[in-house]
């Protein structure tokens, strides 16, 4: 399977990583996806952030826990009609950004 990174949310973060445990694990995940493996946990549809639905019209989402509490978010996407699906790496983020994206921070009570 082909694997591509989102130009806005994944690629700049990945390219900015120094060689180390996070980048090494992401490389292993990319290799596994190319070998048609599913990596990580499936996220239930009602937990998919609107951000991903609006930007990519996705219905299936996966998350992978990485070293140092980072997360990789990906989906399978068909870019052109009649084409085989590709693994689309949506975002690579630290735990704080992940919590914000998925709405896990508690709101202050009034």
Q: Which fold does the CATH topology refer to?
A: YaeB-like fold
Strand fraction equals 15-25%
Number of separate strands: 5
Overall outline = globular
Q: Which secondary-structure class do the elements indicate? A: alpha+beta
Strand and helix order: EHHEHEEEH
What proportion of the residues is helical, as a percent range?
Answer: 25-40%
The CATH architecture: 2-Layer Sandwich
Largest sheet, described in full?
A: 5 strands, mixed
Number of helices: 4
Rounded radius of gyration (Å): 14 Å
CATH class: Alpha Beta
Average pLDDT over all residues: 92
Low-confidence stretches: none
Number of domains: 1
The largest beta-sheet arranges its strands as 1-5-4-3-2
Our measurement of the CA-to-CA distance between the termini, rounded to an integer number of angstroms, reads 50 Å
